[in-house]
Amino acid sequence: MRWTQNFKEKARAFLPAGSDAARMGVLAYDTLEAPRWTSPTYRSLAKEGFCGNVIAYRCISLISRCVSSVALVAKGDEGAPEALRSLQRLLETPNNRQSRAPFMETLASYLLLSGNCYLEAVQNDAGQPAELVALRPDRVHITTTSSREILYTYEVNGKRISLPSTGDANGEPKSDAGLLHVRFFNPLDDWYGMSPLEAAARSIDQHNAVSGHNLALLQNGGRPSGCLIVRNAQEGLTEDQRNTLRAQAKEHYGGGANAGKILVLEGDFEWREMGLSLKDLDFVSGKKLSAREIAQAFGVPPMFVGVPGDATFSNYKEARFHLWEDTILPMLDLLVAELNGWLAPKFGEHLSISYNPDAIPALAARREAVWARISQASFLTRNEQRAALGYPPVPGGDALLS
């Protein structure tokens, strides 16, 4: 706590002259300061959000692991089976340190943490990508030339490495570029994306502040802050006397080990509690509200981060379906579309990368609804129904069902 002589003089101005209260010495006083928000840098957001907040960690890890659980499939020109197999092998084993699942989890996590993910292709002697490497976003820097060419550099340990350009003189992406930059929309920047973590930063700060306050309160024996008032102090306490009182009070009555001890004051002293009660501060409701806001920023139903009382979804199955439909599939489609425009053409003109949504268990409800709707369509032949579901025709299936 800080001692402010200015506060002491102002406080005495409101008291009757000559009264005992006017001669009281106030030992400590705290004022409310402006909030200190987390810096919007990658390192600060990752440290305070992903590493220091259980709600943000749960949201990011849930989305990225769901994205990585979907198998990617190479499709296209069967007249070039070797190119098709090479692309599929690269999708299954992007590099010698990661298989598909951890690699896709890394890409999705970087995208959620920074709004950007960078993918470098290491080529073999034939000019085809032999490895795919995900670069840490905070180490990649973007510059542009006077001719609007986009230049990337990778900085680590004070050294900068130039990366292959991803744009030509007109600013258009180059299909033969060795670097892919995937980013979210950012209304304030032309080159870098904006992450959901930045949008949720203030709610994360509030959630962390409540957790820190509760821990400090528990470690202090569950006692809120207060002030020690010295009555009949004509000239006030000296700095040495105030420091001595603070040190003795902290040593004998501070911390969880001293919880429950009786405070003994000798002389004309009074202890006055200055902290608000937990009911007044309503920390529990505030923490739940912050957790809900963090989950909303990432598009995760609050029930998945442990927030009770969420009546938006009738059950867990419905919430899981909407998580995939509204959050995971759009991110997966973004990554697949970027890979199709950058990676697939390196192996052949008619190759593409896709995934099978019917193999995702969470989308079973949507699949069953489509099947039921098509099977009940009496105006379709059996082969037309099979074609709508992706199955080949069968003999005698071209007649309308009676």
Which properties best describe this structure?
disordered N terminus; 14% strand; three-stranded antiparallel beta sheet; 402 residues; alpha+beta; single chain
Report on this structure:
The chain has 402 residues and is α+β, with helices and mostly antiparallel strands. Among the domains are: 5-36 and 201-267, no CATH class; 361-402, no CATH class. The protein is built from 13 helices and eleven strands. It has helices spanning 5-13, 42-50, 54-68, 81-92, 100-114, 196-199, 201-219, 239-253, 278-281, 283-298, 316-342, 364-375, 382-388, and strands at 25-26, 73-75, 116-123, 129-135, 140-144, 150-156, 159-163, 179-183, 226-230, 269-273, 352-354. Strands 1-9-10 form a three-stranded antiparallel beta sheet, with no helix packed on it. Strands 4-3-8 form a three-stranded antiparallel beta sheet. A hairpin with a 5-residue loop joins β5 and β6. α7 (201-219) packs antiparallel against α10. The longest helix is centred in the last third of the chain and has 27 residues, at 316-342. It is elongated. The termini are far apart.
